[in-house]
Amino acid sequence: MKRHVLLLLFSITVISCGPFLKVSELKKNGRFKASKVATTLKSVPFDLDTHKALLVVPQDESKFFIGMAKNISYFDRVITFENLEKEIEKAGNLDKISSLRGLDRWSKAYEIYQPFLILTNDFRDEDETYWQLKLINPANNEELFVNEIPYDFDKILWITDKNTYNPTYNGLIEYIESNSTTYNK
């Protein structure tokens, strides 16, 4: 319960203040500046080049997710779920997904619209809390890539882009490099 309250308070702080979610620029070595390395939990071989036309990110903190994904310079377009729905509506297909929820909704959107991937984050709680970055293929709802880094709510003022978010995005860059023949920094 304590962790859930802290998570709620943290989310409010992030949304209202925004300093924790700072969009970073790639350094000359093709990585974001980071003081730690994230742990990769899952890395499924996948032909990313056939899905690089569109990456969909959550609406919450969309400026951060869009900015970070664009700065990787791999995906042709990066949009939010809300914008994807608007595009599907313009194409006259919103009724085909409107009754669906969660990943089933995005699986159907993938089927009727165009191939895309989903980039999202999550928290995992065990003995400690971890912030996770996930790349999902909505065609079959498979997590292609998952990495994480410890997230210490007791030291929330020390959670920064360099020690939390950038390491997970650097892991995503490594995943892209391993699964793309067209990516160049």
The helix-and-strand class reads: alpha/beta
Q: How many separate structural domains?
A: 1
Shape: globular
**Main β-sheet, in a few words?**
6 strands, mixed
For the CA atoms, what is the radius of gyration?
17 Å
Question: What do these coordinates show?
Answer:
- There is one protein chain.
- The chain is an alpha/beta fold and 185 residues long.
- The protein has one domain: Rossmann fold (3-Layer(aba) Sandwich).
- Helix content is 36%, strand content 22%.
- It contains 5 helices and 6 strands.
- It has helices at 2-17, 62-72, 81-90, 102-112, 161-179; strands at 39-43, 54-57, 77-80, 117-125, 129-137, 142-150.
- The protein has a 6-stranded mixed β-sheet.
- The protein is globular, with a radius of gyration of 17 Å.
- The model is unreliable at 4-9 and 11-18 (pLDDT under 50).
Task: Detail the topology: elements first, then pairings.
Blueprint: H1 2-17, E1 39-43, E2 54-57, H2 62-72, E3 77-80, H3 81-90, H4 102-112, E4 117-125, E5 129-137, E6 142-150, H5 161-179
Parallel strand pairs: 2-3, 2-4
Antiparallel strand pairs: 1-6, 4-5, 5-6
Give keywords.
185 residues; alpha/beta; Rossmann fold; 6-stranded mixed sheet; 6 strands; globular
Task: Summarize the model shown.
This protein has 5 helices and 6 strands. With 185 residues, the protein is an alpha/beta fold.
